[in-house]
Design goal:
InterPro entries: P-loop_NTPase (IPR027417), T4SS_component (IPR051162). This is AAA-like domain-containing protein. It comes from Desulforhopalus singaporensis. The protein has 4 domains: 248 residues, no CATH class; 260 residues, Rossmann fold (3-Layer(aba) Sandwich), CATH 3.40.50; 128 residues; 163 residues, Trna Endonuclease, Chain: A, domain 1. Strands 3, 4, 5, 6, 7, 8, 9, 10, 11 and 12 form a 10-stranded mixed β-sheet that branches. The protein has a 5-stranded mixed β-sheet with strand order 13-14-15-16-17, with helices on both faces. It contains 36 helices and 19 strands. The longest helix is centred in the middle third of the chain and has 26 residues. By secondary structure, it is an alpha/beta fold.
């Protein structure tokens, strides 16, 4: 008789027995029935008491069984391997019941059907107890075989015993390579004939039968229903659904739903990771799980992010306490543009000559060629788009030249674009086509327009005071090659709020270029001596183009793994999207749109629904994960929240010391950065340049400006100290300087007067007149009067006092008019709001002749393009608003 028919027959017989269990039937039932039940019970208990079961240490039995299963599967036993099974083992003991002494209420009158069930169970126990040692060995042997089969279903690359890998949390079922085959194996071992005849796992087998009947849709009440069982391998169910349908109400549920660490081997991480996390889904928490594991393992890594929040959390960890011996404080390199008083010392062109000395000629040439490519990639950020062919050519040769010029900086590059003749000796020292280019092409008309384009963008970069301070150093104090080899922790804040999008991209690309250069220099290190190093780039789309493919391939060879994170696929163009998909072996997605899910499903070997099911709950979030050659399908991984936030933070004193140490090693005080005085540049007119940019030879003014009457400095004049406004004040100075330069004025911030005894906020020159601009952010009348005296005594034609609002300006006007009535009346002192200041600059411009225009204080001939009055007003209004808001933030 088949199993399902036996089940149907037994249930049918019990129904008949209960139907006959009426008071009348019970009154004629033989009185010996209960006595027979008691007798069976007493006999069974007696046999149990003599068996091995009362003395079994169940915990010890569980450990021995699990260790044996691990060893049989060829695995090293570990807590991670045993933990999911230990509690389940004890559940199997309880489910089979015979480990405990049988119990029976001898005073209770059991129904006829109950008596039949109890006697059936007791006789089953009696049969087990009669061969207790053999059956115990058989019982543990069955579980050992089942556990061994589960262990063998794990991929070879997943090794819980290793501690040097990153991990998330994952339901155990998703570690199984083929869940359907694994579950079918479990059913076959538990439900085979030998186990059934030994009466072991009776309740478990009953539950498995019922689960299979329910899922297969078999109607036991209908004898004509001959539908077969649907086996797991024929079900087409997902992993979690297989557990729900076939293993419901069994200890296997707890095994396969056990949250265990999911290890990603380091070798897989060298093949790079692509993270797509929708807004608020927990992308940063995911990155933190990687980073925290690297910190614990004392691995070197680099973080590049534009918001600074993640970096701030990392630097506040107690692992970096400089007062604790053995901490990671000495390994920290912090790049923070928001620390404007101590800008980091960077140089785009400082290729470490010492790093080249140990290379063969082939390695040296390979590094030089790759460095040129990296510079082209970095320069692409200057233009915000792909370089044109002509721009790429000039940058390729400029990169080679810049590496030959000692102490070259971004200012050197600017000078080359303006008038590169003084660098001709270095051009002549080049070899091959590079030398020929500078001899025949660089100074020709065909590249004149390209040089102007480059120069215009360079001026745009240099107008950002923060970037200018960082990149105007002759040395590069951040050596990423050394950092990689020493396992340093490099935290780079690209400060999008401060540098805006363009500056953020330039800084990010600069460091990615340095990373690329450092990776290539690893050719000089033997493979076994290359320490693993990991790079995390948040909002990666801001920095990369389609050439990332080559960078990823190079990194893979030299034990550097990149994790590239962003929010959605629309942030990538089609070429970059294809590169990111094909060049990363680890993919994690969560909180994405349905459209992105469809695209990702093809790459992650799954369905879009699986990706969309990754949910965010209180305390954790989920990501769909696929790892090439490790997971046969996409699996959901769980990332707990607060891994970093839950850790203690550095005491303020320790944090201050940490920052001071970082400043001393990698930064320089802002006041120590010296910029060379800029001289006017004279270039020949290029006949083939477009008319809008056609510029004549820069002529010196034929009529000398009228001599400025120098006033004697009053003996009691106290020169105010500079720098009162701090970083924001300097930012506003540079903003006003940039606006004035756009209007044609020569502008200098912190112009020294009286042999350096004092300085003017912004000094303007145009059409033979000099203007001093003082930014008023204080209501301290004494301070303002000193500023006025200083500027008037320095011989400026006109002093502009700039305030952000009428109330402050009126108060300033009253105080200054009272102290300097004649100067105010003669218009030597004027009081302006930001919008009036823009109008003032426009009026001064209008006074110049139509055929000439002053550019940064020098006369040149220009052909003007037409700009509507409405456009000009809109632009001026926007500029005035920026200045006004900046002044208000300074208060």
């Amino acid at each position: 008789m088949s199993t399902e028919r036996k089940i149907w027959f037994e249930k049918f017989w019990c129904w008949i027995v209960d139907a006959l269990n009426t008071p009348k039937i019970r009154s004629i039932r033989p009185a010996t029935n209960l006595k027979e039940l008691h007798q069976v019970y007493n006999t069974t208990v007696a046999i149990y008491d003599e068996s091995v079961f009362p003395d079994i240490d169940r915990n010890n039995l569980a450990v021995k069984t699990l260790i044996k299963a691990c060893e049989n599967a060829g695995l090293q036993p570990s807590v991670e391997l045993v933990s999911p099974f230990f509690d389940a083992f004890l559940e199997f003991v309880e489910m089979d019941e015979f480990f405990d002494r049988p119990k029976l209420d001898l005073e209770h009158e059991y129904a006829w059907s109950e008596q039949l069930e109890i006697k059936k169970r007791l006789r089953r126990f009696k049969r087990i107890y009669s061969q207790n040692e053999a059956n115990l060995e058989r019982w543990t042997g069955v579980l050992c075989s089942v556990f061994e089969g589960i262990y063998r279903s794990l991929p070879n690359q997943v090794d819980f015993a290793k501690k040097d890998t990153s991990f998330f949390l994952i339901d155990f079922i998703y570690l199984i390579e083929n869940p359907a085959e694994c579950i079918e194996y479990i059913l076959s071992v538990i439900c085979n004939q030998e186990v059934e005849e030994s009466c072991l796992f009776y309740n478990l087998r009953e539950q498995f039968d019922q689960n299979a009947i329910d899922f297969s849709g078999i109607d036991l009440s209908n004898p004509k229903d001959t539908k077969p069982f649907i086996l797991p391998t024929k079900s087409k169910l997902e992993a979690s659904e297989l557990v729900d349908k076939y293993l419901a109400y069994s200890p296997f549920e707890s095994i396969f739903s056990y949250l265990c660490p999911f290890s990603i081997p380091i070798q897989a991480r060298f093949e790079h990771c692509h993270v797509i996390g929708g807004t608020g889904h927990g992308k940063t928490q995911l990155l933190q799980s990687f980073i925290l594991d690297d910190i614990k393992a004392k691995r070197g890594f680099c973080v590049i992010e534009s918001q600074g929040d993640l970096i701030n959390k990392i630097t506040m960890l107690p692992h970096f306490d400089p007062t604790v011996n053995g901490s990671l404080a000495e390994k920290l390199i912090l790049i923070d543009p928001t620390d404007t008083d101590f800008p980091v010392c960077l140089n785009m062109f400082a290729l470490n000559a010492r790093g080249m000395s140990g290379l063969s000629n082939t390695q040296r040439e390979m590094l030089l060629n790759a460095t040129v490519d990296l510079y082209s990639y970095m320069f692409g950020a200057l233009f915000g788009a792909e370089l044109t062919q002509r721009q790429r050519v000039i940058f390729n040769y400029l990169a080679r030249l810049m590496m030959e010029i000692p102490n070259a900086t971004i200012q050197t590059l600017r000078e080359l674009m303006e008038d590169g003749k003084k660098y001709k000796p270095y051009m002549d020292a080049l070899q091959g086509s590079a030398r020929a280019f500078f001899q025949t092409q660089f100074f020709s008309k065909s590249f004149a327009q390209t040089k102007k384009q480059v120069l215009a963008r360079l001026w745009g970069v240099l107008s950002n005071a923060t970037l200018e301070r960082m990149f105007s150093n002759t040395e590069n104090r951040v050596d990423l090659f050394k950092a990689m080899n020493e396992g340093k922790i490099v935290l780079i804040n690209t400060a999008k709020d401060l540098l805006r999008k363009e500056g953020c991209q330039i800084l990010g690309r600069f460091f990615i270029a340095l990373l690329g250069q450092a990776i290539l220099r690893r050719t000089s290190i033997t493979e076994e001596n290359r320490k693993p190093f990991f790079v995390y780039i948040d909002e990666a789309h801001e920095y990369f183009d389609e050439r990332i493919d080559e960078q990823l391939n190079q990194a893979r060879k030299y034990k550097v793994g990149l994790t590239l994170a962003h929010q959605n696929l629309d942030q990538l163009d089609s070429s970059l999207k294809g590169t990111m998909m094909s060049s990363t072996s680890i993919k994690l997605a969560g909180g994405v749109s349905s459209g992105d899910a469809v695209q990702l499903a093809r790459e992650m070997r799954t369905t879009s629904d699986t990706i969309l099911h990754a949910r965010k709950e209180n305390g954790y979030t989920e990501f769909a994960c696929w790892i090439k050659n490790i997971t046969s399908r996409t699996i959901p991984v769980t990332v707990p929240f607060g891994l970093l936030e839950g850790l203690p933070v550095l005491p303020q004193k320790s944090y201050t010391e940490l920052i001071e140490r970082n400043r001393a090693k990698y930064c320089r005080p802002a006041e120590e950065i010296v910029f060379d005085n800029l001289e006017p540049v004279v270039e020949k007119e290029q006949d083939d340049a477009p008319s809008i940019d056609k510029v004549s030879d820069a002529e010196e003014q034929t009529v000398p400006p009228p001599p400025v009457k120098q006033k004697t400095v009053p003996e009691n004049l106290e020169i105010p100290k500079t720098g009162r406004g701090g970083p924001r004040h300097r930012y506003l100075q540079n903003l006003i300087k940039h606006v004035a330069q756009e209007k044609g004025f020569k502008a200098i911030t912190e112009q020294a007067v009286f042999d350096g005894a004092g300085s003017v906020d912004v000094s303007l020159e145009g059409e033979g007149r000099k203007f001093a601009v003082e930014i008023s952010v204080s209501t301290d009348s004494t301070w303002e009067m000193q500023n006025v005296s200083k500027c008037l005594s320095a011989g400026y034609d006109q002093l502009i006092l700039l305030a952000s609002e009428n109330k402050q300006l009126d108060k300033l006007r009253r105080a200054v008019t009272s102290a300097f009535p004649a100067e105010v009346k003669e218009n030597r002192i004027i009081f302006l709001l930001p919008d009036s200041f823009i109008s003032f600059l426009n009026d001064e411009n209008a006074k110049s002749a139509q055929k000439t225009k002053t550019i940064r204080g020098y006369k040149v001939k220009v052909n003007y393009s037409t700009v509507s009055s409405r456009e000009e007003k809109t632009k001026n209004k926007a500029i005035a608003k920026v200045i006004m808001e900046s002044m208000k933030r300074m208060k």
